[in-house]
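Weekend entry, working from home. Most of the wet-lab plans are on hold until the incubator is repaired, so I used the time to fold the two sequences that have been sitting in the queue since the last round of cloning. Logging both here for the record. First:
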Amino acid sequence: MLTKEQIAKRIAKEVENGQYINLGIGIPTLVANYIPAHLEIVLQSENGLLGIGPFPKESAVDPDLINAGKQTITLLPDSALFDSAQSFAMIRGGHVQLTILGAMEVSEHGDIANWKIPGKMVKGMGGAMDLVASAKNIIVAMQHCSKDGQSKLLPKCALPLTGIRCVKKIVTDLAVLEIAPEGGFILKERAPNVSVDEIKSKTAGKLIILGEVPEMQFD
């Protein structure tokens, strides 16, 4: 199975030149470490930042510079700071081409649940609902199964939904999958040394296999 860093590295291959990208909390923030140097992209944070630099060294941490996940970051020479109202106007206006999010569940129709577990205290949804409603492309980075071994790729999400029919692609520690237009998880790639049968056994939703399934490539 893939590490969190390997999931992020595989997702970085989906990034295209010139994109404005929002990275969600957790595994998605790691994607920034693997974006090819020749690509010119702009990272956006919904708390009011455009042009996120690399994570700072301990000696250079500025507690006033944080992303939406409360992680300290650095600025670039052409970074811009603004209020959250402008940030969400940018998101709702469709100016973010790619959103990469974590998830607790994804349904075979592309529904996503990533903000609340009933009975547990949460501070709020944050920008997730706006992002899934407005971004042109949504990729999910997640573990294939929960800690108790239950599939997180389901016929229907059991947790409160963040968005409906919005997810295009999912990269887990076992596989790369796309959502089929008619519903179902199309198995596109498998993690090294992971068999198709193992992925079948750990996917509760409809799994679609079209011919030979190649192993993931990271370079």
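Second, folded right after the first finished:
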Amino acid sequence: MNESILITGANIGLGKETARQLALKPETKKVILFCRNQAKAEAAKKDLEEQTGRKIFEIVIGDVSDINSVRKAVEKIKEPVDAVILNAGGVVGKTAGNITPSGMNELAATNILGHVVLVDELIKHDKVKKVVLLASAEAVPGVKALGMKPVAMKTSSADEFAGVLDGSYFGNKFDAMQAYGYVKYAGTMWALAMARKYPNLKFVAVSPGNTKGTQAPNNIPPAMQIMLKYVMMPIVFPLIGGMVHKLEVGAKRFADAISDEQYKSGVFYASKEGKLSGDMVDQGTFYTDLKNTTFQDNANEAIHRFIK
């Protein structure tokens, strides 16, 4: 039972809906909305209070792409939380390949950097008690029906992971959509490594699946945005089957995974092979690199090279 939960990127989309669902559980006593923008966080808090009829929401401001911002934010968290949902992220868009002060590209910094720092700091100060969930994606094992190739690194060495994180792995042609799967792979392997390093905590990676109503379509090039919003989501995916679901379903995956004992620590859960919706299964049963503990540790090492 989780009485207190912190959710990053909680002012909109999956984060906000997850906060709403958790607030409707009687055992939930506090939900921390970890957001980048104060005004948007305040608006989300007010809306969530109106929707749920509960005043259990607190705001902590922090930018997950900025190490110092996250560390300052952790100082404001006075009491330990039971669960942390690392939801913030996305494809980012045109600036995805830009290098941040950490040395990571913006795509990696937004999806991984601050989340790793957040968890490290929470553990260091004994401020997380039970569960850490990282949002991952089916882009890691790929979806053959849609031409999404699985992540295929040559060695999954620490150097190779570091190349993904700073963008050098992709050469001169940085494609955010391609890089996204590799970044999510690095983050997922970090989570699985942490599960072994901290056996007293449950670390789980979960994909929300192909979810309507998220912000991802707004972070990609305009032509792709139009195709995804007006053709793929409403027409193509429903016809194929098992390829899309409502926002509430994607958020429920997060809410369930932090509390249901069927979801075990050290596992990446997402849709069945070749699907983007439906029941969640252990991705390691068909994407076996996930089970390689050396690869997991290499990802963890590579990420920490950028944390100073």
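Plan for Monday: verify the second prediction. The chain has one domain: 4-304.
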